[in-house]
Amino acid sequence: MPEPQAITIIWSNVPKEHEEAIRKWHNLEHTTERLEGPGYIACRRYNRESGEGRHGRLNIFEAEDLGAFDSPYYLRSRNDPTPWTRKSMNLVRDGERSVCRLVAACGARPRIEPPYLYTVRFDPVEGAEEEVAAWYREEHLPRMCAVEGVLRGRLYRRSDELSNVKTAETTLHPGKEGMLAGPRAFLALYDMTTVDPIGTDAWREAAVGTPRSAATIQKLLNPVRESWWLDFVKYAPGLIARLGE
User: Fold this and answer.
1) DSSP state of 124
2) Which of 22, 38, 111, 182 lies at a 20 to 30 A Cα distance from 234?
3) 57-63 and 40-51 strand pairing
4) What is the average per-residue pLDDT within 89-93?
5) pLDDT at 216 over 60
6) Per CATH, the architecture of 6-243 is what?
7) Quick check: 23 pLDDT over 70?
8) How confident is the model at residue 53, as a pLDDT?
9) Phi-psi bin for 37: left (phi > 0), alpha (psi -120 to 50), beta?
10) 127 vs 119: CA distance, rounded Å
11) Which pLDDT does position 177 carry in this prediction?
12) Are 25 and 84 in contact (CB under 8 A)?
């Protein structure tokens, strides 16, 4: 299975009284429509476990490259939402969306779906973008993936151009500006079998236990750290056919 080189990630809140309606729409129509697009790999939906953020739900669409989120099919779909999509998106609150490309990865895709995801969103200090990416690639991700329970780590960087594209769907979200672009430039994702290691001595040692790590982590501005549990996953219907080509 191809490693997703790009993702669209959406943070949101769903009022409790609308959770079942949104789940049905997302399971039955929205993910099916998206995953029929060229280059899509999978969609995963998570619910909040713990952390510092303000959102209760997380959706991640994986793709072979950024082109999946800029194709004629994708833009046509986003600019011609179905009646069910119009009704459902108007119920979602506090939406933020980022389109990101992969810049560093460690570990293979697990055979069994990991039940937990740990995320870190941040901006690097000005001028430190490449230094931070190199630290993740060369030291930080390998050290974090050596912690028991951590299966895989990835670092993505937001595409400002694609994240800020306005479509008919964007305007369906309540609020003056509709769905907003995610406010952080970098996003780290960790697939985990359990969230128990988070905050332990082993976790802290992996994160800041070298001089390079201790210095570089200070260059991450306004980090938001959250953990999530997997609620739903669906793979693109054409994925198996593409793998056999």
Assistant:
1) E
2) 182
3) antiparallel
4) 93
5) yes
6) 2-Layer Sandwich (3.30)
7) yes
8) 86
9) beta
10) 23
11) 64
12) yes
